[in-house]
């Protein structure tokens, strides 16, 4: 219909359909004290199938950002009583990075410095009220498109391509500076290195596809078993590392023992195949007042892992 009526190019229409399909699951929070303005923006967004959430002031917007997960775009009016658009954006950016959420500022103020100020505070773009329908949609789709590109780049740089858990690069970025600080604070922190036992046999007997399936399933079981609180990374091959922030050696050992036992009990099912697999786990705890680094911790965990392997596999060594 759009194609015929507007004589858009075929490519444009294909892109539009893809965009609409994506928008359907995209949550947008509209923070504006004017009910009329909110309704206007809501209508424009709904025309393009976005899921719209409204906040009548800055404080409510912050509440909703906490309560509702997966908001991809915040449209924030500048003039609002209490927390205004600037403060809202500053506070929203403390919680949501540019990879997670885009922000567009709005105002009917004619102050020419507003655009720059909004963007300096963390907005991706700015729109002057009143705006026309077409401009609004161009800005929104450009902003979301670049958000998607940044997110994809971020994923390619930080996630393991096969299992989607974090990769080595992410793990080092997150923890190499933290470990010395945690050590000085005397905080509890443990690290576990896991290696699947006789994994090469899986590849040799059943092929690489089954090997890949096992790695993916192993990673997701590990993540599920540990919960959101701990960081799981694949360091390469069939070796995974877990950061157990807040856990001393004893508690880390108990947690990893639980995982190891469940792993050994529940076979991996791939079509007709039922594979029983075990893993060996090396654990190290950060000592109090230590001058440990992430590298030194990993080395020690590797030594413990080697012990677990030579002592007969399917065990944890602390
Ligand atoms: P051990 O109990 O001593 O750990 O023995 P193992 O067979 O698990 O260990 P080894 O290091 O000898 O073999 C690891 C194998 O993992 C060899 C390699 O081909 C395989 N591998 C590494 N990366 C991948 C991958 O991405 N996919 C698949 N399918 N296999 C992989
Ligand atoms: Mg206002
Ligand atoms: Mg192995
Ligand atoms: Mg290995």
The total count of strands amounts to 13
Q: How much strand content do the residues show?
A: 15-25%
Low-confidence stretches: none
* Contiguous helical run count: 13
Ligands, deduplicated = 3'-deoxy-guanosine-5'-triphosphate, magnesium ion
Biggest β-sheet description: 6 strands, mixed
Overall mean pLDDT stands at: 93
Helix share of residues?
40-55%
N-to-C series of helices and strands: HHEHEHEHEHEHEHHEHHEEHEEEHE
Terminal Cα span: 66 Å
Shape: elongated
Question: Could you tell me the radius of gyration in angstroms?
Answer: 25 Å
Question: What strand order characterises the main sheet?
Answer: 6-8-9-7-12-13
* Quaternary organization: single chain
Structural class: alpha/beta
Catalytic activity: 2 GTP = 3',3'-c-di-GMP + 2 diphosphate
GO biological process, one term: phosphorelay signal transduction system
Cofactor: Mg(2+)
Domain Response regulatory: 27-144
Short description:
The protein has 318 residues and is α/β, with parallel strands linked by helices. It is built from 13 helices and 13 strands.
Please tag this protein with its features.
318 residues; alpha/beta; binds 3'-deoxy-guanosine-5'-triphosphate; binds magnesium ion
How would you describe this structure to a colleague?
The chain is elongated and about 75 Å long. It is built from 13 helices and 13 strands. The model has no long low-confidence stretch (mean pLDDT 93). A six-stranded mixed β-sheet has the order 6-8-9-7-12-13, with helices on both faces. It is an alpha/beta fold and 318 residues long. Helix 4 runs parallel beside helix 5 and helix 10 runs antiparallel to helix 11. The structure holds 3'-deoxy-guanosine-5'-triphosphate and magnesium ion (3 copies). 3'-deoxy-guanosine-5'-triphosphate binds next to strand 7, helix 10 and helix 11. This is diguanylate cyclase. It catalyses: 2 GTP = 3',3'-c-di-GMP + 2 diphosphate. Its EC number is 2.7.7.65.
